Amino acid sequence: MEIIAKAPASCGELVEGVLHGTPFLVTAPISMYAVATVSDAFTGMHGLGEKAQEALRRTLEYIGRGEMPYGIRLVSNIPQGKGMASSSADIAAVSYAAARACGRVLTGQEMMDIAIAIEPSDGIAFAGLSYVSHTTGELFGQYHNVPLLGISIFDVGGAVDTISYYRSKGNQGSQDEAYRTLLDTVDQAFRTDGYRQAMLLGQAATASARLNQPHLEKPRLDAFITATQDKGSVGVLVAHSGTVVGVLWEQDMKAAAMERETRALAQEFDGVYTYMQTARLISGGVVCEIRA
User: Fold this and answer.
1) Domain spanning 150-280 has what CATH number?
2) Is this model's pTM higher than 0.90 or not?
3) ∠ CA 279-31-78 to the nearest 5 degrees?
4) Topology (CATH) of 2-143+283-291
């Protein structure tokens, strides 16, 4: 028996802010994964960090099991400390795989509740794009039929400790109107499709990136945004509590053109923005495969 659970990373958040005093975000899951494997072919824990081990403990407690009856292994290529949901993906993959091995199928909300008990969570456990509080775990809404926008991921360097960041971040005055407008823009995007949808999502992401500058500045962000627009991007999103910046491209853009424009950006902003890799915006949620 082998159970394989894959949970996606994120490239920061599409939108993040505070509305009516409650911190929220709209997720930006991407095609990078943490993969948890539960098997009766081996024993013990392999590759589980401190938070993943805590997730396993809490999951077993939640489903009423005293111990894990099988071996469990976690493999992830998601960079840590960059705002790419590395811990959230680890927690979701481990929680789902462990519960499934014990005969339980966890919902996105159950995985989110386990994650929130450990640290603020990106909400990648929910299907589609989710509008969620990353501090309380409350789900406010979900958007399905996610367009597979291309994302060129850049890094401005360093690392951010998520827990310390949110403890220190203050709400600098009410920006409710601004964030309501951004959420309305996301709603509009999912009432349409094609290029207009991509443009609206890019517009919301870019505005949110700019609003986050007083909290966690990305160097030369306005210049970078202008340069991406000149090269045909539909917008820029950031890790609001991390170091990555993503350039959004419409899903029909040819791979060669995306590569060419990304290379030009990397050269123009050499020493400030380091190119990491290209991914796709995807639906969130855990994907599970069971092998007899």
Assistant:
1) 3.30.70.890
2) yes
3) 90
4) Ribosomal Protein S5; domain 2 (3.30.230)
